[in-house]
């Protein structure tokens, strides 16, 4: 299962960002090109194993856009994107967030109180972005049916679980200067 994703992750190039080994992958970075077969495999898996009884799919720019698009096209469920730009539309939700890698503001439009959503993201490391996003959505009165993240790296899933936020990952990885390794399925996050 998810063989295209796993194979592509194992082949992902590693670059250094300071002391941090960073993997580059089409699903998490948009480069090199995103293979439609990869998106097809991922979206099929998400549709099969997620609670799809939702009003909306919600994902985070930029790399959440192709994921949400693929799922939306297959299910007919509309999607909204959490943006880094403010639009000042009525009902816009502003989130101030700080993670291990960045800080700033995010904006959600097209989500209303009482909506039931599927939240999809490309990668989780520290869990910071999802933590702030989930809190903002819950305060708005939105129900989150599932939180699905394609690639799990680091301890973000465990940190969020300790706060009562359940995140499902498709693949958990370890990244070193030698490359990406796929961690065995523990059943805890998948």
Count of folded domains: 1
- DSSP strand count: 10
Which residues form runs of ≥5 with pLDDT under 50? Answer: 186-190
> What Rg do the Cα atoms give?
16 Å
Q: Strand share of the residues? A: 25-35%
CATH first level: which class? Alpha Beta
Q: What is the share of helical residues?
A: 25-40%
Largest sheet: 6 strands, mixed
Distance between the termini: 12 Å
The total of helices stands at 6
Helix/sheet category: alpha/beta
CATH-defined fold name: Rossmann fold
Q: SSE string, helix = H, strand = E?
A: HEEHHEHEEEEHEHEE
Shape: globular
Strand order of the largest sheet: 4-3-7-8-9-10
Question: How is this structure best described in words?
Answer:
The chain has 190 residues and is α/β, with parallel strands linked by helices. Helices cover 31% and strands 33% of the residues. The chain contains six helices and ten strands. It has helices spanning 3-10, 26-29, 36-49, 64-75, 128-140, 156-162; strands spanning 14-17, 20-23, 56-60, 79-82, 93-98, 103-108, 116-124, 143-153, 168-176, 179-182. The strands form three sheets. It has a six-stranded mixed sheet with strand order 4-3-7-8-9-10, sandwiched between helices. A two-stranded antiparallel ribbon has the order 1-2. The protein has a two-stranded antiparallel ribbon with strand order 5-6. Strand 9 and strand 10 form a beta hairpin. Helix 3 (36-49) packs across helix 4 (64-75).
């Amino acid at each position: 299962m998810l063989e295209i994703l796993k194979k592509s992750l194992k082949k992902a190039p590693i670059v250094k960002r300071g002391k941090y080994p960073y993997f580059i992958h089409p699903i998490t970075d948009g480069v090199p090109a995103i293979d439609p077969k990869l998106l097809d495999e991922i979206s099929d898996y998400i549709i099969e194993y997620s609670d799809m009884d939702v009003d909306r799919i919600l994902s985070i720019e930029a790399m959440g856009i192709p994921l949400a698009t693929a799922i939306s096209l297959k299910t007919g469920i509309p999607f909204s994107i959490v943006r880094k730009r403010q639009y000042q539309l009525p009902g816009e939700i502003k989130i101030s967030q700080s993670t291990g890698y960045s800080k700033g503001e995010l904006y959600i439009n097209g989500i209303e109180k009482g909506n039931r959503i599927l939240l999809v993201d490309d990668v989780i490391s520290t869990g910071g972005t999802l933590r702030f996003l989930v809190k903002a959505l819950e305060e708005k009165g939105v129900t989150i049916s599932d939180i699905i993240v394609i690639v799990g790296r680091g301890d973000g899933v465990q940190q969020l679980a300790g706060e009562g936020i359940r995140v499902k990952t498709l693949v958990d990885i370890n990244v070193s200067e030698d490359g990406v390794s796929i961690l065995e399925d523990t059943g805890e996050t998948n």
